[in-house]
Amino acid sequence: MSITSVGFVPAAPLLVPQVAGGSSQLDEELREACRVVARRLAATTDDAITVVAPVVTGAAWSTDATWGFEGFGVPREPADDRPRLPWPIGIGDWLLDDVGWTGRRNYIGVADDGSVSTDLAAGALLLVGDGTARRTEKAPGHLDERAEAFDVQIADAIRSGDVAALGGLDTALAADLLCAGAPVWRWLSVVIGGDHVAEADLLSDTAPYGVGYFAGWWRISP
Amino acid sequence: MRRIYHAGVPTATGSLRWGSREFAPGEIAVMAIVNATPDSFYDRGRHWGTSATLDRVTQVIEEGADVIDIGGVKAAPGGVVATAEEIERVLPVVEGARERHPDAVISVDTWRAEVADVVCRAGADVINDAWGGVDADLASTVARHGAGYVCTHAGRHTPRTRPHRVWYDDIVAETTSYLVELAEGAVAAGVRRDGIMIDPAHDFGKNSRHSLLLTRHTDVLVATGWPVLMAMSRKDFIGEALDLPPDDRLEGTLAATAVAAWLGARMFRTHDVPATQRVVSTVAAIRGDRQLALGRRALA
Predict the structure, then answer these.
(1) B278 is catalytic
(2) Structural domain count, chain A
(3) Predicted ipTM?
(4) Which of A10, A122, B62, B96 has its CA 20 to 30 A from that of B29?
């Protein structure tokens, strides 16, 4: 089975309304773009959606795990005692809940060095990851003049369906700029193999807090 | 003061000795922030320049500060302040403060052993290691001078970096165990046991909920037996609780101060000395640790 579609959403905890708290409406436009991405993925598969996100140690997780953001100080309401996914994967899992996806889910965590099983890389992939975190002086990583151009490269690659450009981002520079998405996109460029992007769409490209957020969608054909 | 009744709140044990002062258990002290910086988040250079900074020192002492905490490098990211420049900013303030106020308890906020060494020679009584044990030589330097020492938890982050999506399986347990480890490490390096405080360092390496959780569980920090310092003044966790900028965070800060004081914290680092002093004095009176300043009502 090959990859049918790919969705791109940010790894920003504040996407989850319970995490954002009283200010959650500030990012509703971005959240809605992410919902559109998830719904499009759902429309291309009647089997599973696989969430792929950056994690410390690469691995795959069991399908009985679920999202939880207790480590950010946010209890899950109502309480749910299923095992927790690492939070970046949890963001994708929460989004699937939010759009009412009831089909099967797989979870893949990609470490910085890209070491992870590729066995599950098929069907619809929801990639959680974002651009640099150094776009402004108030950004999490403070201002780095190189950040904006780097994020433009990412936006262009998603908009034009350029797998090679997305996978070929400078690894060292990505790390310097706190770009959380780079390892995941590098992984994608490997697993996508010879398939090509038949349709590409960048739904959102913003950086309201100095972190580059992208919501995008690709349809893949063999 | 003998208490007839005391609510079941955590109570500190042991005195803290800093400079000329001994802070008894039950006493709640106020540490005044003195910024020798042009760019700190709240005062934004209001007291920049040695003469203006020294005027600020005199002001906070007259307002009733028990300790002054002089810092030469703002916490947020920004232009590099090298060791030499930090010394240039802080040293004349320490020297001037010591000369004008021989009995004042002077703390210096620095993560650098070299800075600590210079200011202790000039009369500083305490080193406030606000970035949590980054310089391995700092504790032994403090020990050499017989100075006091504040151990903080900054999430093991590099000084002057912002937290980004920081995750703690248990922020209270992690902070508490790290602080105890730092404090015991300081003792092992020769720092006086009765000169050490622990500070969970609100917002340093933490999101706002982490800082609120640490405030809610102040009693866990107090239960370690180490005296607890809280540095919460006008910080973002107060701002995010209320969605208000630094200028409008006084009431929120004082509310957090009252809660933490009730739960046993012993010292509060603040921009607002008179207001903080009134809050902690009231809490001490409620706890039964402080006599009435005036006892006339219905008693004549």
Answers:
(1) no
(2) 1
(3) 0.91
(4) B96
